[in-house]
Write a structure and sequence with these properties.
The protein is 12% helix and 44% strand. The chain is mainly beta and 154 residues long. The chain has one domain. Strands 8-7-6-5-4-3-2-1-9 form a 9-stranded antiparallel sheet, with no helix packed on it. The chain is globular. It starts with a helix and ends with a strand.
Length: 154
């Protein structure tokens, strides 16, 4: 009995797959230290009714176990102290408090719960993908997952 072209192709692909070493994913190939550094997300919210620009810059500085998130721009001036946890899919950023150690912002509001996930990031072929959690600067209707933070030199 002879094999068809499809059967030969399937057999050849199976043989190649057995001989080819598994290629690690981007997240697996990069160790935890590959996440440490500075990331920036520049939010463009368009314009107010009066024509003023609605722009907010979010700067994230990641270190082993900790981080600092600073947001400044249109009606925004906030600094958050956070924690980092690297897992097999990426890095998870969680709320630790505000500078000075409190869990209430400068207006006395407890906006985030200690230990709550602010957002997470993972690397893909398209770049760093952010999944917003408790911290979400995007407007209603915008995707909660997307290319927001980008690595940035100092």
């Amino acid at each position: 009995m002879t094999k068809t072209a499809c059967e030969w192709t399937a057999s050849a692909l199976a043989a190649i797959a057995m001989l080819t070493p598994a290629t690690p994913t981007v997240a697996q190939a990069a160790g935890p230290g590959a996440w440490w550094g500075r990331y920036v997300y520049e939010h463009d919210g368009g314009q107010t009714a009066g024509g003023s620009g609605i722009a907010v810059t979010h700067v994230l500085n990641l270190k082993k176990g900790s981080c600092r998130l600073e947001a400044s721009g249109f009606q925004t001036d906030e600094t958050i102290v956070c924690r980092t946890r690297v897992d097999r899919t990426g890095v998870v950023v969680s709320f630790a408090g505000y500078p000075g150690g409190g869990t209430r912002n400068k207006y006395g509001v407890a906006q985030y719960r200690p230990g709550g996930t602010l957002f997470s990031m993972r690397r893909t072929a398209k770049g760093v993908m952010t999944t917003w959690g408790d911290y979400s600067p995007v407007e209603d209707g915008q995707p909660r997952v997307g290319r927001y933070f980008r690595p940035s030199p100092r």
